[in-house]
């Protein structure tokens, strides 16, 4: 940081405040601590499971003219798009209704920011002695938007007008007083008014923490230092980001991933990204991606941008303060009216996990290829693609207490991590773009909802094979229990069920696809009555139906619902994997003996799991011969 | 099989593919496992590789994938000499090869 650069004094003008590196670090970390504290306030005040348990939220600081200066939120996907909301607020309301001290404004229009309508943001100006000196914002995913479908993911929506609330900056707090008219209006338009109200109040509380801590910093260091710090944070991050980019090889890399099914028919959408890196600049060009859909699987520009930011921040700029500075070397080229840059009023409520979610996979893939070609230090940062949250199921119905419920199951956030260039990926390790996200406890699920789980665990053979394998994905299965209506409807919003999208790298295999399976008229309860708990899908008899990736299914009493989510992609050729590691994987039930022999070429025998060295050598030679003998 | 000790590494673009110079000073792709020269680097290394393209169903039978699909294939690229696997693509049938172009300046 060049904070102590000499400056020429101009007569009659006050010298700018000096910001030394130690003070810079202290203030930066105090701001980060404030962001973390605001997150803790959200967790303690929101009644929403998505916030309290899953921790889908983000908080950030902005300059007085709306530039993002620092974030540390739980979901990086949202960070960039909130900055666009703050700029919209300034541009549209500063000279009309005014932005005054104690005001807060609520947004949920994905065409202004956020990934889809359930992403609700409250922006607050920060004042000091009557002057607006910045902004802060808090975002959470709310459990309902009053849309055509409960829960805010709308498989049936064909335009934005069917997707519920699209708030464009209603003043929810005026001069520090809550605006009852706005609260009452919003509560009157959603299915879970009490929880949505709590979520709004929690974001207000979160913003109050951010405001208070910023004012304390100004009290201690002075306004000039605070403003200098905010500007310096952006410059600092930009400089480090450009330095990092310069270390990457110049070149061009391409990745193509696919989104299957539009909710009505098994359409196929292509999402193509070409990354061009030259000097300290990176361009992501999505030309060649499919036109937008007529259903809600589209993503907005903000969603596509947010997904790209999240990957770059988490994978390439993980040690650089996350703010607008790291976006300055980035150029995003999105075709108009395409699946990841839909034109209003296209429906976009499934844009996450659909269109936007697939961007995450494509950007991970090109970034890892870039890093792999960029010398030993950066090569260590490359990996197979991480499994991620694209197998979203949302049961809706009446719970065992007789109340309406919406249950966004986000277990698939615990995807398997991609294999590293020097080590296996972590099983159900989660993803980098959602660094604070957790998954719920089964006991809590069973307490809150009318279900009984048979199992939830890592799925055998789900990881992408490689010299270093990906981390395993997961699977669970539940049946209805004490459902007063004898059924629940489950909205499905999935991808990566037909195409394998958690790609491997440099010769590694992709991870297995995910699945939604319904077992109708199952024998699971009678098995339970015999004192046994079904341990896997094979032990449950009934009519097994592989469900389409998107749409609805009704789970009735006696039925079971099974979900498997993605592992991570493998790295390098599996026949180079140390046989002892394969043996250990078989012992740990991560890899089956059959896959171990067929793909890794390692023969493991008997109950003692011994490696048959001769058979292993023979099998690996056989694999090499097969590769060259039957080639296209 | 493998590189002679002390032999200089070229510029690695994937785990098993590097760009190096041949005796005439031409930039070429080489296999990092066996040193086999694939061909000049002005076109994709995939043009020189042994390619095997199979349906998803084959990979379901092998236990690698879980869902069959008529629309998708797995494409594997191998070294013609040592059969190490350079790359894997999971794509729709007919999708052009996903290329890598590294600046050789």
Explain the overall architecture:
The complex is a heterodimer of chains A (632) and B (105). Chain A has 632 residues and is α+β, with helices and mostly antiparallel strands. Chain A folds into three domains: 21-239, no CATH class; 249-564, no CATH class; 574-629, no CATH class. Chain A is 30% helix and 21% strand. Chain A has helices at residues 21-45, 49-54, 79-93, 180-187, 193-221, 223-247, 301-316, 355-372, 375-379, 442-448, 524-529, 579-587, 593-598, 613-629, and strands at residues 57-62, 68-71, 104-107, 119-128, 131-141, 168-174, 177-178, 251-260, 268-278, 281-285, 330-333, 391-398, 404-406, 451-458, 474-480, 487-494, 515-520, 543-546, 550-556, 560-564, 604-605, 610-611. Chain A has a seven-stranded antiparallel beta sheet. In chain A, β1 and β2 form a beta hairpin. In chain A, α1 packs antiparallel against α5 (193-221) and α3 (79-93) packs across α7. Chain A is globular, with a radius of gyration of 25 Å. Chain A starts with 20 loop residues before the first helix and ends with a helix. Residues 1-9 of chain A have low confidence and may be disordered. Chain B is mainly β and 105 residues long. Chain B has one domain (11-92). Chain B is 7% helix and 40% strand. In chain B, the strands form two sheets. A four-stranded antiparallel beta sheet of chain B has the order 1-2-3-4, with no helix packed on it. Chain B has a three-stranded antiparallel beta sheet with strand order 5-6-7. At the A-B interface, β8, β9, α13 and α14 of A face β1, β5, β6, β7 and β8 of B.
Give the topology, please.
The complex is a heterodimer of chains A (632) and B (105).
Chain A: H1 21-45, H2 49-54, E1 57-62, E2 68-71, H3 79-93, E3 104-107, E4 119-128, E5 131-141, E6 168-174, E7 177-178, H4 180-187, H5 193-221, H6 223-247, E8 251-260, E9 268-278, E10 281-285, H7 301-316, E11 330-333, H8 355-372, H9 375-379, E12 391-398, E13 404-406, H10 442-448, E14 451-458, E15 474-480, E16 487-494, E17 515-520, H11 524-529, E18 543-546, E19 550-556, E20 560-564, H12 579-587, H13 593-598, E21 604-605, E22 610-611, H14 613-629
Helix pairs in contact in A: 1-5, 3-7, 5-6, 7-8
Chain B: E1 11-14, E2 17-21, E3 27-31, E4 37-40, E5 50-55, H1 56-62, E6 72-78, E7 85-92, E8 100-102
Antiparallel strand pairs in B: 1-2, 2-3, 3-4, 5-6, 6-7
């Amino acid at each position: 940081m060049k904070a102590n650069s000499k400056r020429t004094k101009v007569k009659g003008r006050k010298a700018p405040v000096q910001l030394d590196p130690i003070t810079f670090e202290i203030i930066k970390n105090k701001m980060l601590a404030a962001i973390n504290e605001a997150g803790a306030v959200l967790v303690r005040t929101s009644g929403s499971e998505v916030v309290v348990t899953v921790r889908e939220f983000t908080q950030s600081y902005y300059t007085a003219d709306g530039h993002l200066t620092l974030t540390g939120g739980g979901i990086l996907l949202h960070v960039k798009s909130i900055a666009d909301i703050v700029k919209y607020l300034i541009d549209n309301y500063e000279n009309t209704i005014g932005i005054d001290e104690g005001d807060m404004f609520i947004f949920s229009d994905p065409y202004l920011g956020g990934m889809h309508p359930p992403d609700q943001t409250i922006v607050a100006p920060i004042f000091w002695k009557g002057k607006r000196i910045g902004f802060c914002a808090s975002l959470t995913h709310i459990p309902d938007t009053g849309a055509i479908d409960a829960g805010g993911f709308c498989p049936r929506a064909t335009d934005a007008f069917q997707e519920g609330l699209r708030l464009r900056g209603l003043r929810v707090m005026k001069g520090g007083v809550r605006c009852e008219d706005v609260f009452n209006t919003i509560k009157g338009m959603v299915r879970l008014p009490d929880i949505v109200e709590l979520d709004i109040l929690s974001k207000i509380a979160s913003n109050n923490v951010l405001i208070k801590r910023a004012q304390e910093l100004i009290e201690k260091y002075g306004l000039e230092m605070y403003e200098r710090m905010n500007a310096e944070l952006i410059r600092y991050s930009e400089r480090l980001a450009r330095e990092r980019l310069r270390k990457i090889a110049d070149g061009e890399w391409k990745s193509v991933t696919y989104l299957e099914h539009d909710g009505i028919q098994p359409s196929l959408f292509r999402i193509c990204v070409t990354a061009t890196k030259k000097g300290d600049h990176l361009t992501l060009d999505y030309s060649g991606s499919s036109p937008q859909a007529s259903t809600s699987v589209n993503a907005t520009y903000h969603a596509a941008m947010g997904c790209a930011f999240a990957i770059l921040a988490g994978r390439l700029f993980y040690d650089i303060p996350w703010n607008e500075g790291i976006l300055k070397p980035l150029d995003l080229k999105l075709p108009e009216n395409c699946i990841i840059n839909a034109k209003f009023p296209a429906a976009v409520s499934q844009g996450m996990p659909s269109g936007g979610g697939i961007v995450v996979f494509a950007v991970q893939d090109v970034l890892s290829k870039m890093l792999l070609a960029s010398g030993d230090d950066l090569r260590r940062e490359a990996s197979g693609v991480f499994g991620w949250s694209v197998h979203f199921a949302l049961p809706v119905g009446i719970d065992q207490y007789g109340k309406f419920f919406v249950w966004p199951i986000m277990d698939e956030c615990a995807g398997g991590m991609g294999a590293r260039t020097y080590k296996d990926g972590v099983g159900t390790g989660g993803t980098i773009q959602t660094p604070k996200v957790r998954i719920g406890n089964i006991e809590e699920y069973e307490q809150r909802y009318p279900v009984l789980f048979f199992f939830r665990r890592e799925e055998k053979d789900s990881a992408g094979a490689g010299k270093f394998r990906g981390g395993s994905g997961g699977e669970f299965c539940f049946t209805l229990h004490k459902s007063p209506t004898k059924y629940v409807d489950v909205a499905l919003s999935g991808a990566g069920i037909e195409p394998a999208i958690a790609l491997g790298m440099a010769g590694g295999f992709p991870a297995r696809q995910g699945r939604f399976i319904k077992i109708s008229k199952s024998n699971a309860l009678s098995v339970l009555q015999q004192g046994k708990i079904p341990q896997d899908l094979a032990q449950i008899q009934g009519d097994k139906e592989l469900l389409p990736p998107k749409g609805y299914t009704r789970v009735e009493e006696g039925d079971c619902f099974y979900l498997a989510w993605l592992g991570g992609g493998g790295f390098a050729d599996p026949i180079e994997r140390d046989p002892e590691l394969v043996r250990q994987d078989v012992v740990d039930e991560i890899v089956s003996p059959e896959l171990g022999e067929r793909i890794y070429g390692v023969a493991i025998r008997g109950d003692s799991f011994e490696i048959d060295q001769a058979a292993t050598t023979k099998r690996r030679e056989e694999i090499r011969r097969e590769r060259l003998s039957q080639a296209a | 099989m493998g590189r002679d000790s002390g032999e200089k590494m070229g510029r690695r673009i994937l785990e098993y593919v590097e760009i190096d110079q041949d005796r005439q000073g031409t930039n070429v792709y080489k296999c990092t496992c066996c040193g086999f020269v694939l061909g000049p680097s002005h076109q994709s290394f995939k043009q020189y590789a042994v390619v095997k393209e199979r349906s998803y169903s084959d990979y379901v039978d092998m236990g690698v994938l879980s869902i069959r699909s008529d629309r998708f294939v797995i494409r594997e690229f191998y070294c013609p000499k040592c059969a190490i696997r350079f790359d894997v693509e999971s794509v729709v049938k007919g999708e052009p090869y996903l290329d890598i172009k590294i600046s050789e300046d």
